[in-house]
Amino acid sequence: MLYGKEHVERYQETDGEEGHEWQGTVTLLLTTTGRRSGKRRTTPLIYQREGDAYLVVASNGGADEAPAWYRNLEADPTAHVQVKGEKFTARARNATPEEKPAYWEKMTAVWPAYDDYQRKTGREIPVVVLEPA
């Protein structure tokens, strides 16, 4: 099973032929710019389509601190996304309070552990909407 840096490298090398499907889900690669370092960082994330946009969850496994990629997007919402061989620039935003319940349900349908992660933390875990720029 691919994980971390190896997951990113195999995904990039094969245009997602290896790494797109992961533990019964599908993943995209999200590249953000480090808010302090200015370096580009790429993270594989479980996703679901929502029209032209992609949904991802900033769970960090239920930790009280949001994942680094999410904090990077807070500083600069422009990101690069790769879904299999498709690569594009996206603008990230949090799901609105009206959107979130349906989007959360859509994401927990493919990765039920998100509900467990939410129970582990007092932080409200955001659903992030990645819209093509």
Can you walk through the features of this model?
The protein is of the alpha+beta class and 133 residues long. It has a single domain, classed as Roll (Pnp Oxidase, Chain A), CATH 2.30.110. The protein contains four helices and eight strands, in the order H-E-E-E-E-E-H-E-E-H-H-E. It has helices at residues 4-13, 68-75, 100-110, 113-120, and strands spanning 21-22, 25-33, 40-46, 48-50, 53-57, 78-83, 86-94, 127-132. Strands 1, 2, 3, 4, 5, 6, 7 and 8 form an eight-stranded antiparallel beta sheet that branches. A hairpin with a 2-residue loop joins strand 6 and strand 7. Belongs to the F420H(2)-dependent quinone reductase family. It catalyses: oxidized coenzyme F420-(gamma-L-Glu)(n) + a quinol + H(+) = reduced coenzyme F420-(gamma-L-Glu)(n) + a quinone. This is Nitroreductase family deazaflavin-dependent oxidoreductase.
Tell me briefly what this model is.
This protein has helices spanning 4-13, 68-75, 100-110, 113-120; strands spanning 21-22, 25-33, 40-46, 48-50, 53-57, 78-83, 86-94, 127-132. The chain has 133 residues and is of the alpha+beta class. InterPro entries: F420H2_quin_Rdtase, Split_barrel_FMN-bd.
